[in-house]
Amino acid sequence: MVDAGSTRWLSDEEMAAWLPLIHVAMRLPAKLDTQLRADAGITHYEFMVLSQLSQAPDRTLGLSALAEAANSSPSRLSHVLRKLGERGWLVRHAEGRSAYAELTDEGFAALDGAARGHVEEVRRLVFDHLTARDVTALRAALSKITPGLADEA
């Protein structure tokens, strides 16, 4: 338990940065989810799974690596893989004790179609409001925060 006397409270400046960060962290995924559902019939999470597979060698990842990359529990990932597999967008296969997911050509085409609207929405919601200097500062700040969010092994 943290001693109330030793709590490092946020300064006014930190609070002024923290509250908008939380707002973005909560609202942006919902906005992207709404756009992808309307335009492509998939969730933002499904888009991220397809995207991770598309970037992997041979469009194939082990399920544990995919769950980590997608920041997912194995059960959530399994449910989504089943759903995407039913659409013909990926296949699952096993090699020994390891299980893999592989993006099909149909899945890649679906991702490509969804990506166009997704990128436009990301640009509209985020990058259209930032200067090149803002983007550089955002990248620098996030690169300092991201390592602390990684799951411990």
TrEMBL record:
<protein>
    <submittedName>
        <fullName>MarR family</fullName>
    </submittedName>
</protein>
<feature type="domain" description="HTH arsR-type">
    <location>
        <begin position="24"/>
        <end position="123"/>
    </location>
</feature>
<dbReference type="InterPro" id="IPR039422">
    <property type="entry name" value="MarR/SlyA-like"/>
</dbReference>
<dbReference type="InterPro" id="IPR036388">
    <property type="entry name" value="WH-like_DNA-bd_sf"/>
</dbReference>
<dbReference type="InterPro" id="IPR000835">
    <property type="entry name" value="HTH_MarR-typ"/>
</dbReference>
<dbReference type="Pfam" id="PF01047">
    <property type="entry name" value="MarR"/>
</dbReference>
<dbReference type="GO" id="GO:0003700">
    <property type="term" value="F:DNA-binding transcription factor activity"/>
</dbReference>
<feature type="domain" description="HTH marR-type">
    <location>
        <begin position="12"/>
        <end position="147"/>
    </location>
</feature>
<dbReference type="GO" id="GO:0006950">
    <property type="term" value="P:response to stress"/>
</dbReference>
<dbReference type="InterPro" id="IPR001845">
    <property type="entry name" value="HTH_ArsR_DNA-bd_dom"/>
</dbReference>
<dbReference type="InterPro" id="IPR036390">
    <property type="entry name" value="WH_DNA-bd_sf"/>
</dbReference>
